[in-house]
Amino acid sequence: xxxxxxxxxxxxxVTSIRSIPAKRLLxxxxxxxxxxxxxSGQGRCGVAVVRVSGPSSALxxxxxxxxxxxxxxxxxxxxxxxxxxxxxxxxLVLWFPGPRSFTGEDCAEFHIHGGPAVINGVxxxxxxxxxxxxxxxxxxxxxxxxxxxxxxxxxxGLGDLIHAETEAQRRQALRQMAGDxxxxxxxxxxxxxxCLAHVEAFIDFSEDELVEDGILNDVDVAVRQLQTxxxxxLSDQRRGERLRTGVQVVIAGSxxxxxxxxxxxxxxxxxxxxSPTAGTTRDVxxxxxxxxxxxxxxxxxxxxxxxxxxxxxxGVRRARQRCGDPLxxxxxxxxxxxxxxxxxxxxxxxxxxxxxxxxxxLAAEGLRLALSSLGRITGKVGAEEILDVIFKDFCIxx
Length: 398
Known about the structure:
With about 400 residues, this protein is an alpha+beta fold. It folds into three domains: about 110 residues, Probable tRNA modification gtpase trme, domain 1 (Gyrase A, domain 2); about 120 residues, Up-down Bundle (Four Helix Bundle (Hemerythrin (Met), subunit A)), CATH 1.20.120; about 70 residues, 3-Layer(aba) Sandwich (Rossmann fold). About 45% of the residues lie in helices and about 15% in strands. It has 14 helices and eleven strands. Strands 5-6-7-4-3-8 form a six-stranded mixed sheet. Strands 9-11-10 form a three-stranded mixed sheet. Strands 1-2 form a two-stranded antiparallel sheet.
């Protein structure tokens, strides 16, 4: 069910969605389903983790192990197929009754041996139980979001942590997953709510002299402070985005200047052919590096010179294309949505100042739009249209 608030206005009626229906935040199955999936990586390994989440999690544990273990205590159990009574494995079983679980629902984990036959046997056993189905990609995390366990910035931090390849990426992902970024946006949202409430009160009750003098001046000061802080936040030269996606470094110059030798020295292996003959490098040679915890894509290119060799000409053309304007081409989509919503929020705050002395109703609408844009970052407002984009990078079981 949608919850709609109608704002009392003489000039217009403005509606805002106050919450998103929980069922539509989930994947194609019902929120009443119990889902299961392999939550550890694919392939042979010493230990694999199979996660179960939903109202029938306790039934699943009892069906495969006969006894529900104590909450949040690892218990060694024989894992048995509920239909054939065949012993599938012996492993650790953990029971997490909701809401104190990752998803906020009743959850269980089976820590089993990582051979494909064992994993398939346990997954088939779970699939034979009524009310259980395989989880869709990102569904555990999506359920955690629906239960209020994570906001969208924390969800993105979890995704970044899963895909982190360097130390600096790991640290940044952990900070975001811990809610550092979300707390900044939530603080701004709380302050904007207060400003909006004061303007609303002035509109509705100033004629009755129930509002203190100077309240709008306080709002003006608060809005300007928010504009300054959001502006400073946007003026980060995309450091966080560069860290997530990596930095591309191109080695370019004249022929036989030592470009390939430099590449080999940095990579500490013969990644590029080195020869005294000019024009040895024809194509672009790319090598990913971890430099001080930052991901770097190092590119060795053909020497920049005039040549009649058609193959070398193509190499020079590709080299020039890699030293071009970094603003050309499509920008990274990793955290671009944060930047977009923050810019929209800033524009809406300008609308407040523009209409402040002309039409206070329109000025208040500027604050409301700014609040809505901030809410879209954390998922507090209008999150549904961006959920698929965020969760599509998750693997099943994450």
